[in-house]
Amino acid sequence: MIDLSGKRAFVTGGGRGIGRATALMLAQAGAGVAVGYRSRRAEADETLAGVRRLRRPAIGVAGDLGDPAAAGRAVDEAVQGLGGLELLIVNHGIWPSDEVPVAAMTDAQWGGTLRANLDSVLYVCRAAIPLLPDGGKIVLVSSTAGQRGEAFHADYAATKGAVISFTKSLAVELAPRRINVNCVAPGWVDTEMSATPFAREAGKGKQEIVRTIPLGRLASYRGFLFGSHAKDGEDLETFLGPEVRSAFDNLVDRAPDGEIEIAGGKTVQRYRANWKLQLENSIDLLHPRILHRSAIDAADRVEHGGKPPSIEWDIVRSNGLTLREWDGMRIAALPRGHCWMGGSLTRKIDESPLQKRYREILVRRHGESRTDEILAFNRHNTIVYPNLFVNSRVAQIRMLQPVSVDCTEQHGYTFRLKGAPEEMFEATIRMVNTNNSPSSIVTSDDHEIFERIQQSLAGGGNEWSDLSRGIENESDAQGTNELPMRNQHRAWAEYMNG
Amino acid sequence: MGELEIWHRVQAFLFHEARLLDERRFGEWLELYAPDAEYWVPYAWEQKDPKEHVSLFYETVTLLRMRVDRLENELSPLDAPKSRVNHFLSNLTVEDAGGSELVARAYLLYCEYRREEQRWFAGRATWRLRAEGKSYRIAEKRVDLLNADQDSGHLRFAIPF
Hints:
Chain A is an alpha/beta fold. Chain A contains 19 helices and 15 strands. In chain A, helix 1 runs parallel beside helix 2, helix 4 (107-128) packs parallel to helix 6 (154-174) and helix 13 runs parallel beside helix 17 (422-435). Chain B has one domain (3-145): Nuclear Transport Factor 2, Chain: A, CATH 3.10.450.50. The model of chain B has no long low-confidence stretch (mean pLDDT 95).
């Protein structure tokens, strides 16, 4: 989390909703907080109690910010109460909940909304700017209504649009003093401001509003966040199933501290082929020995001079298992198109001093038998259909983002296992450099072939791609059986047919 | 040896390196490298450390040998048809780095033609050179591409920069 120790913040409208959440988060990050409110003292006190529980300075500041004198007093009280001010969060505002067409808008409502949402923004900023130090921060809270308008709430939308251009103006004005002025535009948030529209139509209002948000659902597993466009459907754990969940479990469990962090940057490769080709490729055990022949041969010609081979060498060489070895490898075709394949790395690297040191750390945390269980998990790719590759052994996740029917981006991420020797992370980086970077002597050949297949399919000469290998033996599939690919396409057909 | 003469000698050496790559004389190219050499093309702009962050290339001589060995192998799909490349070098400066070592810096322009596509990359190249007889050995080569960290990423580098 960002460290704001010793900083002092004034959050207007901090008694409830987004303002309260902001105040508490600032306190969590170490800042002292002045909580502004107009009239609801009890709610502001609750926010203040939350800040104090985090052992940060907290003071309440009452006042109607639409009144210039009161706004000035509020800012002064905040600054005096905290002994200074580095962060100003202008969050207060109203949203008249009745639906009022512009043709019927009364002067009173228009004037009231402007006073509460816009005049007050000027008054607070005007009073605070001279008191902020160089390098201070101002955040103004607008709304998605300010970006795209809101029918029957033109007064609200107009003030929030004005806050956006106010922000842009002020940002340039204060640039010489290195004061950042930014604006955030929240969409629907479940706060008291949304209570009336949520409650409409006997409680159905919320459903109607949620329907307008493209992302249907969010859920997390072991700290990995998943989004679904489908509002309803099975929950995340069911969707992943036990065998895919175990790949995420193993990725996290390999960290002695039980936590991993994304680190080491990100690799992106954009190629001109359909995303399905890489999904098939990544579970295809027939191609490595053939397609990666030149890299395997090159690895075979390396003289190690009696020293143990590097992990980078191992990951290149591992493609060169014999056909019999590939055919003996375990694969699994799982519900919803998911699949996995067994590990292909040789076990030589497990005998390195580094691996031994790492194992000892794990044993101290978990004992022998649990450590053996964690390290025995030997898989290469676990594929979460339709676009995710998990590899816990090398602490890597890759994600496919289709750009168009004939263009795909692969995004690769690496992880640091907390509590493990730093050299483990360095080994992960080296493996990615060798195996998954744009200069890789392995995946470059795959990307080349994806593009050629795409061109060949676009040529129209072949009506079908043949994925029938092993179709006569689907119940006992292993190795080079193309069952997992057929399983992917069956899942796709099911999704497309609703 | 005068400064100008050293500069001239380094330039001739680097032009020779470029020509070996462009003419696909990979075995001879690799012989220019010291056994403990590192070849680095960072992924991040002004990348500080090759160990903490992924790179476009970060290779030992062993890995470089696998790379060029493969390019000489007819079975590499990436290199069929073969890439044609030109390495252009300019703005060369040479500094004494103490001991018997020099640091050379140049602008690098790399043009590659393959499968109906011509790609250009521009970057800043740095070599740490070790004097050896009348010539040099490369102890370290680093190439910082101007677009190293572009959002759309990179694809398929076959012949080194």
